[in-house]
């Protein structure tokens, strides 16, 4: 508790720069930016121009989150179009299990919106393929890729999250068993450092490789543990989630409380997607815990995005602290997630 109090004191000081939450209509900003995201959508391919396969799953998730927050802002036709065009390639489009996890979570979100079983069925199909990657190489966990070259954090966090989400929706014990098994392995794997941050993966000797503490690795695990707590009726998982969330906030925010990855510009096309994933999952944790510091973190980042990282067409860039430089569907959808996350907790 002492450490958590220190985190809160740090954040309170950092947030003094903000103009106050009353100056920001997060929901209106999220609406405008979700509409702007559609400029990159390709109706013919069902994905978003200029970005990778998994990034399009995150764009779809952002639109679904927007609709869940404001049902009048309806993207059902987009979800349907993307699904129908690509329905035969979910488990064959990529050689990476994490890609499958992103799409599985996107379709679970679509199922939550529509109750259409086809979306849940796709998620279950993707999960079954991910489960084939389980390995005894490091006493458990799944491989990152189908060539079995690397055991990393993100693939295993996504495997846990998909299992927990499916357990909470289907009440099929196999998904709960997988989720518990994965978390027990993950917690003991060494991926979580002594300061509660999560490194990228394991080395050839199955030890923490000390690689970059990316924001998305600190984020996916939060939503996974929230869903596992719901599926198992065990709130102890939320304690682990809060420790990881606050360690990330302490480690990865600047002096104004704005989130950054340690490398952003020039670090490859994936990194631009990461920060929004963290904020989306922090919002889920806030909903489960009502931790006021998490809400303040989300509001501060949404404010900075809107004030410092936006052009005249409401396109959102890479650096949430600004200045705005340029945008693509990845930078934009990531920052949009920060706006949606703040809107989802406003007034709570």
From TrEMBL:
Coiled coil: none annotated. Keywords: Signal. The keyword Coiled coil does not apply. It comes from the Eukaryota. InterPro entries: 6-hairpin_glycosidase_sf (IPR008928), Glyco_hydro_76 (IPR005198), MUG_Protein (IPR053169). One of its GO terms (biological process) is carbohydrate metabolic process. This is Six-hairpin glycosidase. The keyword Signal applies. Transmembrane segments: none annotated. Residues 1-23 form the signal peptide.
């Amino acid at each position: 508790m002492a450490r958590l109090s220190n985190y809160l004191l740090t954040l309170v000081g950092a947030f003094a720069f903000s103009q106050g939450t009353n100056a920001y209509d997060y929901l209106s900003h999220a609406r405008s930016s979700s509409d702007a995201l559609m400029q990159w959508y390709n109706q013919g391919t069902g994905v978003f121009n200029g970005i990778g396969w998994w990034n399009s799953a995150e764009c779809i998730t952002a639109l679904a989150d927007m609709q869940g927050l404001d049902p009048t802002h309806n993207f059902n036709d987009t979800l349907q179009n993307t699904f129908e065009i690509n329905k035969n390639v979910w488990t064959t489009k990529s050689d990476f299990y994490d890609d499958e996890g992103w799409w599985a979570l996107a379709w679970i979100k679509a199922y939550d919106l529509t109750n259409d079983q086809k979306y849940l069925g796709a998620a279950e199909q993707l999960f079954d393929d991910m489960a084939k990657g389980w390995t005894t190489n490091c006493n458990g966990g799944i491989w990152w890729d189908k060539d079995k070259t690397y055991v990393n954090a993100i693939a295993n966090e996504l495997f846990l999250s998909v299992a927990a989400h499916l357990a909470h929706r289907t009440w099929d014990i196999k998904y709960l068993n997988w989720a518990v098994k994965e978390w027990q392995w993950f917690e003991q794997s060494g991926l979580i450092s002594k300061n509660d941050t999560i490194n990228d993966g394991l080395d050839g000797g199955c030890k923490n490789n000390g690689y970059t503490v990316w924001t998305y690795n600190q984020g996916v695990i939060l939503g996974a543990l929230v869903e596992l707590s719901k599926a198992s009726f065990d709130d102890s998982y939320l304690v682990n989630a809060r420790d990881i969330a606050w360690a990330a906030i302490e480690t990865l925010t600047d002096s104004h409380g704005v989130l950054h990855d340690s490398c952003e510009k020039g670090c490859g096309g994936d990194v631009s997607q990461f920060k929004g994933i963290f904020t989306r999952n922090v919002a889920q944790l806030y909903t489960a815990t009502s931790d006021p510091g998490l809400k303040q973190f989300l509001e501060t980042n949404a404010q900075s995005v809107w004030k410092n990282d936006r052009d005249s067409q409401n396109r959102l860039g890479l650096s949430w602290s600004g200045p705005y430089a340029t945008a693509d569907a990845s930078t934009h959808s990531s920052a949009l997630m920060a706006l949606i996350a703040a809107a989802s907790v406003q007034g709570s």
